[in-house]
Amino acid sequence: MKRHITYIAMLLTALTGAACSQDEIPVGDGRTGVMAMTISTSRAETNGEYDPLQYQKVYIYNSEGGLLRKYAAKEDIPERLELLSGTYRVAVEAGEEVPADFSKRIYKGEETFVVKPGETTNMEVVCRIANTVVEVKFDNSVVENLDPGYFVWIAGTDKFDEAEAESGAVPALKFTDEGMGYYTLPAGTSSLAWMFRGTHTTGKAVEMENVLTEVKAGSKYVFTFKYSPDLPGYIDALLIRVDTETEDKDDKIIFSPDPALLTEGFDNDEVQKYTSGEKKYRIMAFAELKKFTVSVGDDSYDLLTGTHEGISFTPTDKYNTELTLSDAFFAGLAGGDHAVTIHVEDANGGSNEISTTYRLQGLVPVTEKSYDLWANTVTLQVVDFTRSANVTFGLCGSDGQWKYLTGTSQGDDFISATYAPEWENKTEADWSTPNTVLPYSRIKDGTGISAGNTYDYKATINGAEHTGQFTTQAGNAMTDGSLEMWRSDKQFPGSGTKYTFWGSGYNSFAKDLCTRDDTMPGRVGSYCAKLTATYNTLAKVPAPGNLFTGDFGISLVPMGGNVSFGKNFTYNARPKAIKFKYHATIGLVDYNLHEGKIPVGEMDKARVFVCIVDWSAQQKVFAGTKAPTGTWDPETQTEAANGPIIGYASKFIDETTPGDEMVEITMPINYYQNTAVAPQGKFNIAVSCATSAYGDFMDACTTNVMYIDDFEWVY
Questions:
Q1: In terms of C-beta density within 10 A (0-12 exposed, 13-18 middle, 19 or more buried), how is residue 508 classed?
Q2: Average pLDDT over residues 328-355
Q3: Given this structure, which CATH class describes domain 502-714?
């Protein structure tokens, strides 16, 4: 069975001087032409195997054999190379030349071509394998009669020497299984020496060696190893049959043309500042075009199926097509930078594309790259090639109020203005709290931008107004914030997170601390969480009902529970507040074992807080028969043991909720840090809901009940 490896990789074309742009045509007697070369591996189907086309060399010689050009890599090969008319030779190598390897191989080929003024010449270079190829096969008789572990050495030498093979002194490969090997034999070497070694199932060693002579580069030799029990000696004799017939001496890589895409009169590596006129491209293809598109942004135009305003193409000869983009095409584009991509595919499977960045004057549309929803900023831009325009920007949100800023030149054709939030410093809590809160900041209403909102914007450029509108990306929802999916009717909610976000103090001694409820009026959806305080009769301590983001573990010595606060959340925008529903029934404190803040007999307080944190590890808190450890309070500290508290929202509930239905509350986020980037660590959110705010101190009412539902970020 013959195996053909076909790669389309090189276009060698002699072109007329007309293939150059006007300012590139050389001055002379018209005896020059242009050789255009492109290298592509688009048709190399390696499927993860070694790809010889990753290693390329191209040499160009004149008619006297003098080396004119050497290109050691694909990216070094120029699209155009001006040559005098005449005869030339091109030599191509693909792959790596190593002494011996199971995958690395090299292909070589060369051809002569002629550059003629006024003509186009299509060339093909066929590169054939330059290695001596060896394939090893083991007959079933070997598998059946020898223990596993047999192998064969094959080396490029007249006589096998294992020490030389092991050290790499000669090209050698050790075959422990069937496979292919590629050899580059030293000059003067035309033999392959081999040695087979194994152990018969009876324990007797089996070893044989021999030499195959008159081997040639570019040929493949199949070594088929068989074991014959019929020969005298049975164990001592091993019949080896060497099949010297080549299986695919025509193994080759064919270098033939992919379509070439060339700009006419401009450098494609530079941004093209477009005001008016035509932009031209030359497409060179040596087979019929099957796909021909021009794409910009989300729009793609198929030039083979219809006409499109501002786009025209005309075949100039059998192999060349001229593409023109004119004013009508660019008129539909807004200000800013646009990547215009031309893509072609031919009937032979070849393909190529070129992308040009065009810069147009005017108001630049706002995209996701224009704003930062954590920093709450948006940058508006216009392009003006004079850099001297008088530009005023305007931004209007849902409040209907326009905010104006004067544009500033960035020195690169762009004039811009950035809308940023204003922060207000505060020192008072929104509602009753037992603590004196630390100073914090909030974004002033009507400043900056936020997630999930629509904004109008405009730019007045030298008296002319340009307008636009954008809607910001929605902020990420709280993980399993609906509390609809539950691990069971007790314990804690979850969903596709595999119940790794929310936790509770559920244990065999306190099974009702957090349960699923489907009866509470005012809940959203089918379920809400019911937090029920209990008394642990074994430990003889109160156990507040609780729900939190974190993990829980029971402790026997000392008796109690370990809560590890902190989970991961992806912040794609800065939350302004947290909204949820609750209903609480609050009674008098009947236990205070560790000097909590509320004496026995006074009204207890439930609590809910939500913290944006940036922790390297979870905050571990112990509560039980011994005094608590690891306790923390976001109102009174800006850092925990493992990192900063970026911001928080907190509510102490000090009375029973009026009525029988759950009520909704929105808690603003108080920020300690307003310039830090969004936390991206493993532990960056901490939520705590407890029927007793100081339950860590065993300071609690054992009859408190609180219903919780529907956590939702407000952006």
A1: exposed
A2: 93
A3: mainly beta
